[in-house]
Amino acid sequence: MVVPLGGMGPEPEEQEVPEKLRSSHYIGWYCIFVLFMATGIGCIVALKIFDALIAIIIGIWAYYLCKDSCKNMSQQCLFSFGIMCVVQCVMEIIILCMSLPGRRTQTTTANGGQAAHGASPRRSRLLDPLLVSPPKRAHPLRPRHHTSCS
Predict the structure, then answer these.
(1) SS3 state of residue 13
(2) Which of 57-67 are b and which e, b meaning 16 or more Cβ less than 10 Å from the residue's Cβ?
(3) Structural domains in the chain (count)
């Protein structure tokens, strides 16, 4: 059985990119390009190489769509770019939901030369209040009130 690789009729004609997109919306596409590249660099710094690879590929794809006055922004390419972004969003939401309960750390202590070991699990929340708001300190310019025993 032979599968045809081309279309079933005459070749579809290339549709012209709308003038509104060429004149004003290309700035947003360049911003998307910059944001995806910054995300890729951040993932490289965090040693998340696979996430960085995906972010950089999507960033290069966004640049391909908007270069030369958006001449490469066909309906098919734009649709597949949107599908790729939605799939990436779903994957990141799954990772976020798994991180919401916080992380669990476990410390193991050994009691000298004895065989007994103690393990104490600790669960820390995603947004620890001690990390979000530092403890209040006295203002450096206000005098402190001390009481003296006379």
Answers:
(1) coil
(2) ebbebbbebbe
(3) 1
Beta bridge partners of 110: 117
Task: Domain of residue 50: give its range.
Answer: 20-98
pLDDT tens-digit profile of 13-55? 667 777 777 777 888 889 999 999 999 999 999 999 999 999 9
Could you tell me the pTM of the whole model? 0.61
Q: What are phi and psi of 124, to 5 degrees?
A: -110, 140
Q: 88 lies in a domain?
A: yes
Conformation bin of residue 69: beta by default, left when phi > 0, alpha when psi is -120 to 50: left
Q: Is residue 110 part of a domain?
A: no
| 36 lies in some domain | yes
Do 62 and 82 contact (CB within 8 A), yes or no?
A: no
Q: Is residue 49 in a domain? A: yes
Whether 104 contacts 123, CB under 8 Å: yes
Angle (nearest 5°) at CA 88 between 83 and 91 = 130
Residue 31 in tokens: 């911003």
Contact present, 123 and 102 (Cβ < 8 Å): yes
